[in-house]
Each structure stands twice: as structure tokens, then as C-alpha cells.
Design brief:
Helix content: 40-55%
Protein name: Glutaredoxin-related protein 5, mitochondrial
Subunit structure: Homodimer. Interacts with ISCU. Interacts with BOLA1.
GO molecular function, one term: 2 iron, 2 sulfur cluster binding
Distance between the termini: 20 Å
GO biological process, one term: [2Fe-2S] cluster assembly
Largest sheet: 5 strands, mixed
GO cellular component, one term: mitochondrial matrix
Oligomer: single chain
Number of strands: 5
Structural class: alpha/beta
Length: 158
């Protein structure tokens, strides 16, 4: 990863985390599917959910109104990369889903991010991937071009 991309990504992530909550827009971002859990935390149901979309996020709240700073940070990192087409599941709406996804992943915290059906981790892991450029590469494998690549190209041409 180029030095300027790494510095720009780290600065952007730091700014996002300092800001805390986003703008609070009530409008759903294009492509974001805030889906109901169907009231089931079964392993079979969760397996279907994480494999249904290329990018799946289990969070507290919704992408438009995250209910914790960590969920907000995940949403903001995805926005920075231009990821607009993903499924988001609000674990606060369903206690079975909240516990079920923790058991399914063997990961004790929310948010949780899945790429192409594979568990990536929570906010800390996604932030680290964002900072070191791994997220750009993982998105590329999914056929998603990170918007940060275009932003860096624009900055380099100035």
C-alpha cells in the first residue's frame, strides 16, 4: 500500500472515531438492506444470513442510526470505502439474534463483519484492516473497488 493511502486512511479513520456518531441521517444509504432477523438465532439461520450478501454487518442500531460508537465506526469505515451494498442486522431488535451471532462466530462483541460469508471481526479488526490497506484488498476480492483508491488518485494528481 502506498504511504499516502495509508496516511489518508489512518487520518480519516481517526477523524471518524473522534466524531463519534454520524450525521444521523434518517435516509437509508443506497443499497443498504437493514433486514429483520426473522427472530431466529439458530446456526442454520445465521449461516444463511452471513452467506446471503457479499458484505454483512451485525450491529447495534442501523447504519442510519448506530446505537454505539463501535457500530458507528464500522458504518463510517464502510462509507469511506464506498461500500453501499450490504446487509445490516440490528441485534438490539432481537435478543436471540444478538446472542446467536456471538455463539455462531465465537466472538463476544458486536458489531461483527462478514465478507463473502467469512467472519472478519469487529470494529477493532475492521479499523486495523482499513489502516493497513487490507480492507481495500479484501473488497477487491469481492469485486468492490474502494472509493479510497479514487480519492488517493485525485489527491496525487493535484
Amino acid at each position: 500500500m502506498s504511504g499516502s493511502l495509508g496516511r489518508a486512511a489512518a487520518a480519516a479513520a481517526t477523524a471518524l472515531l473522534r466524531r463519534g456518531r454520524g450525521s444521523g441521517s434518517a435516509l437509508r444509504a443506497p443499497g443498504v438492506r437493514a433486514a429483520g432477523s426473522g427472530g431466529s438465532g439458530s446456526s442454520e439461520h445465521l449461516d444463511a444470513l452471513v452467506k446471503k450478501d457479499k458484505v454483512v454487518v451485525f450491529l447495534k442500531g442501523t447504519p442510519e442510526q448506530p446505537q454505539c460508537g463501535f457500530s458507528n465506526a464500522v458504518v463510517q469505515i464502510l462509507r469511506l470505502h464506498g461500500v453501499r451494498d450490504y446487509a445490516a442486522y440490528n441485534v438490539l431488535d432481537d435478543p436471540q439474534l444478538r446472542q446467536g451471532i456471538k455463539d455462531y462466530s465465537n466472538w463476544p462483541t458486536i458489531p461483527q463483519v462478514y465478507l463473502n460469508g467469512e467472519f472478519v471481526g469487529g470494529c477493532d479488526i475492521l479499523l486495523q484492516m482499513h489502516q493497513n490497506g487490507d480492507l481495500v484488498e479484501e473488497l477487491k476480492k469481492l469485486g468492490i473497488r474502494s472509493a479510497l483508491l479514487d480519492e488517493t488518485k485525485d489527491q496525487d494528481s493535484k
